[in-house]
Each structure stands twice: as structure tokens, then as C-alpha cells.
Amino acid sequence: MTAQPAPRLARLLEALLDVGTALDLRTVLRHIVDGAAGLTGAGRAALVVADPGESGFAEIRSPGPGPVPETEPLLRVPIHVRDEEFGELRLAGRPGAAPFTVEDEQLLRVLATQAGVSIGNARLYETARQRERWIEGAAAVTTALLTEEGAGDALTTVAERARLLAGASAGVILHPTAEGGMAIVTASTPDDPDGMVGATIAPGSPVLEQLLGGEPVFIEDSATDPRMTTHVRNRFGPSMMLPLRAGGRLIGTLALPRRRGGRPYTDLERLLATQFASQAALALVLADARRGRERLAVYEDRDRIARDLHDLVVQRLFATGMMLESTQRRPGADDVRDILGRAVDELRSTVREVRTAILTLQQPPAGPPTGLRGRVLRETASAAARLGVAPSTHFRGAVDTRVPDRVADRLLSALRDALADASARPGVSRVEVTVEVPAPSPGGRDGVRLRVVDDGEGGPEEGRGTTVTWWAPL
User: Fold this and answer.
1) Cβ distance 48 to 92 under 8 Å?
2) Which residues, at least 6 apart from 461, have a Cβ–Cβ distance to it below 8 Å?
3) Which of 115, 378, 387, 453 has the fewest CB within 10 Å, making it most exposed?
4) Cβ(78)–Cβ(50) below 8 Å
5) What pLDDT, on the 0 to 100 scale, is given for residue 357?
6) What is each CA distance from 316 to 320, 344, 350, 352, in whole angstroms?
7) This prediction's pTM
8) Residue 328: CB partners within 8 Å, gap ≥ 6?
9) Count of helix runs (H) and strand runs (E) in the chain
10) Is the bond preceding 7 in cis, omega lying within 30 degrees of 0?
């Protein structure tokens, strides 16, 4: 005895249950198509979506042999989500090319009604999930920028997170240029970023005028939109260009292009990305202010240390040296005159080193050093790791004001070579660097002299100690 097929009502209930319990939109659409095919016995079923950009796909088909042809018996039933037509169910391929019945259409309309409700629920669920992802992304960027995690490259952090959230082909940050245009300064992309950084939007572009006015720009196809002027626009299709604006100040633009032929951005995605850009701009400003406060605190601390060294240590050392010198001049000091002389020399050397340390503390902790003194100190500090000892550095004369830049560059090159040679010699435990200006030549011409002395092996005198002297006219 063969089993009888389940009543059509039971199959309808089963199809309604499948459609009504799914939350993911793609899963809901798949259940609708499969349920329609099962209810009517159609060999082929398809759901053609009215707005492919809204859902990311144009058609969902059941696994039948090929598409639904218009020449065979065909059943069409629209699906409405609230008052909007979402798409149309199309069925064909009944056994023996039999026509569809009125009962088939009634069952399909019941399924379509439930499908509209389920699609609406899936849309709401997806909207909530999207909002949650963008909110979490904005919070993650803010946290990263306000901690050390993202402080190293804040713009890359923003570009990378936005690209992932938007499903974009690239995340790009542009900054205003001095000429009145905008240039790409950061590009985050899993594809080839070659040629992107440095690409510019020319001054006077309509896109630029909107961005400078704080308005977002939404583009359907970057490659064909006449408003786009960068040479990399041919790589991309749909795009969003969002001003990074905080406190009434435009600090840049976040661009999120998708590849050519990519899905257009929905209204919801545009809204969420615009809100993300506003939050990211505020986080960038706060992070910059935090780093400014930290730098200021470092400057103030270094200033305090420098003042303490100057007011206490240098003055005491100088006073001690004066006492020793006065002792040398007293009657009966012949026995200790040599010892006192060496002590005075050591104190003078110590005073010079402390003053050098004070100058080092007065240099900014980040960024390029200022003046020849700062550049020399940066060079000797960099060489300390190779040498295994910090060089003792001394300056005589107005080296920052008397030495031209072209001569200073040559001096630093000579210093670099001398320190490299010293690091290659064994047994180096002391390195002294002296820069003196004016340092007259034997012919009486004023110049600048660099002297580098080390106590390593292989020197000209008794196998130890090397002195390198360099001189250039001013």
C-alpha cells in the first residue's frame, strides 16, 4: 500500500511556519520560493525582487532545471511589504505542462501574505543588526583613538573600521590642501592601493564645494560621475564621501567606494555611515587634544627637571670649583696642586655635561630636533646603542646661530661616520664629541670644528684611543 501525499493544507502550514520563523532576509526568501514550489508542484519557481539594490540580489530561484520561461503555463503572485511591492513570485513547470488551478493561486496568495509580514520582520531585524554593528564600530574607534592602541595611526584606524562596516572596496581619508583642493592621505583596502595616496580632488570641484560646506556626497558610479576628478576613480562604482567635521571645523573627508558594479548604498547605510563619520571626527579631535595634553605634561616635566639641574646642580658644582681654585692659590698648597687641578677640570667637564643634559631636556620629545645642538644630540643619542656607551657631548660658542645649514649638514655627516667607526672598534668605554665655533684655521679663517675622541683599541698611540677632527669654513 503506497503512502498518500500530505494534504495541501498541511503543506501550507508547514511552508508558513518555515517562512515565519526565519529572521535572515535571504533565508526568508529561500523559504518562500521553496514553499511555493512545494505547494503547487511547480518544477521551477522564482522570486523576482522589485529593487535589487535594496536586498543585494535580483532573483531567488528554487533548484529547478533552468529559469522560468514565459512560454509555458505561468503563475504570478505579487508580494507586498506593507503598501510597497517587494517582488513577484513566478512559478512554472508543472508535470505534464498542466495549467495552474484557482486553488494553486489561493494557496500561493496566502503564502505571499505571510511572506510580506516575514520580509518586513527580516528587514527590521537586519536594520537593527546594522545599527548595532555601526554603533559598536564607532565605539571601538573612539576607544582605540583615546587609548594607546590606535594612537599610532588614528586615520588608518578610522578608514579600516569604516571600510569593514560599509562592505566597501576601500576606506579613504582626504585632507584639505594648501591649494584649496583635497588629497588622499590614508587608504585602507584589501586590493592593490597603488597610486591612491596622493590622489587629489582639484579646487573648484562641485564635490569639493559640498564637502567643504559640511555636506555628504553620495555617488552612484565613481567611474562615470563627471564630478569625480581623481585618477583612481575608474576603479570604483557606488561611493559615499562623508565630511569629518567637529566643532564647526572640517578636519577631513571619509570616502567609502565600492568596486565597479557593486551594490548601491541604501538610505539606511548612508545614514549610519554619516553618523559614524561625525562620531569619528569627534574622536579624532579628542584624541589629538589628549595627545596635546600629554605632550604639554612632558614638556612641563622636562622644564622642571632642567630648572632643577640648572638652579641646584650647576650652581653647586660651579661654587665647588671656585672653592677648589681658591684653595690652589693658598700658600702651602703645592702638595695637592695637581690633585686640585684635576678636580677643577673634572668639575668643569661635569658642568658642561649637565648643561648639555639641560639642553637635551629642552628639546621636544617628538619630531625633528631644532638647531645644530639638537641635531648633534639626537645623533649621539642614536649612536649610544651601537657604541654601548652614551657619548659625552660638549658645545663651545654659538653653534645654533653661527653655523649655516649647508655646513651643519656636512658636520652631521662627518659625525655619523666618526661614531660608526668608533662603534666598530673594540674596547670603547668612552666617547667625547666636541663642536666648537668659531674655530680658526691655521690661516686664521673662522670655521666650525668637530672633534670625536674615543678610547677604543687600534688607535695611533700605544694601540688605544682615536681622535677624529673635522673642520669647515663658515
Assistant:
1) no
2) none
3) 378
4) no
5) 64
6) 6, 13, 11, 13
7) 0.54
8) 337, 340, 341, 344
9) 12, 14
10) no
